[in-house]
Design goal:
The protein is an alpha+beta fold and 210 residues long. It has a single domain (21-209), classed as Sandwich (Jelly Rolls). The chain is 15% helix and 34% strand. The strands form 4 sheets. Strands 1-13-7-16-5-4-2 form a 7-stranded antiparallel sheet. The protein has a 5-stranded antiparallel sheet with strand order 3-6-14-9-12, with no helix packed on it. It has a two-stranded antiparallel ribbon with strand order 8-15.
């Protein structure tokens, strides 16, 4: 089975044992340009990102996570929903996830700027099964850091436990990565000298939920 675009994954499973699938050039060039235009045209609408846990409506905790978020994806909500669902049978197979009925797909834009980060956590709440992160930014790139670390994760003593080893996913423009939502992961600190939101590490982050 292959994804609809016929693009091969950059990487799927590697020596440290964590699982992910990544694709290059997820959006067409004109789509990427429109997405950037949409996001930069709404830079005043970004709000501090909240932390959501099972049964909570979210809270701001800058000791644990720091970034800004835009809920309005405009036309790109449907673009991401439809394209991700078309990839899903292939992604599920490669990740070794049991097929499941999709209840909804959630997506939002995150801007990570100087000093922003997200400590170790999992996304396993509110029916989330697969997490996806799509990376984009202006050119030339004006930030550094912001790598995604994925940790091999097991259930131990009734809780999720991460290994000491990890895989690193670089925030490469127009790439998307999929991984099981139970994996422990983190976003390393971003460095952006200008501090301007236009120069941020942008992502469309979301979840496929059962």
């Amino acid at each position: 089975m292959s994804p609809p675009s016929q693009k091969a994954p950059t990487r799927d499973r590697n020596s440290s044992g964590s699982q992910f699938v990544a694709f290059r050039e997820f959006l067409l060039p004109e789509e990427l340009n429109r997405l950037l235009g949409h996001v930069l045209g709404r830079k005043r609408e970004f709000r501090r990102t909240r932390i959501i846990t099972q049964g909570s409506r979210g809270r701001v905790d800058s000791r644990y996570r720091r970034s800004r978020e835009l809920a309005d994806l405009g036309e790109f909500r449907d673009v991401f929903t439809h394209r991700i669902r078309s990839y899903l049978p292939w992604v599920v197979q490669r990740l070794g996830v049991s097929p499941f009925p999709v209840r909804k797909t959630i997506a939002r834009v995150t801007a990570s700027n100087d000093g922003d980060f997200f400590n170790k956590h999992t996304d396993l709440c509110k029916g989330r099964v697969i997490t996806f992160v799509y990376y984009f930014h202006r050119e030339p790139k004006r930030f550094a850091g912001g790598e995604l670390r994925l940790y091999p994760t097991i259930f131990k003593n009734g809780r999720l436990d991460a290994a000491d080893s990890f895989d690193t996913v670089m925030p490469l423009r127009n790439h998307i990565v999929f991984f099981p939502s139970f994996l422990v992961h983190e976003v390393r600190p971003v460095r952006c000298r200008s501090g301007a939101i236009e120069d941020s590490r942008f992502t469309v982050t979301g979840w496929v939920c059962k």
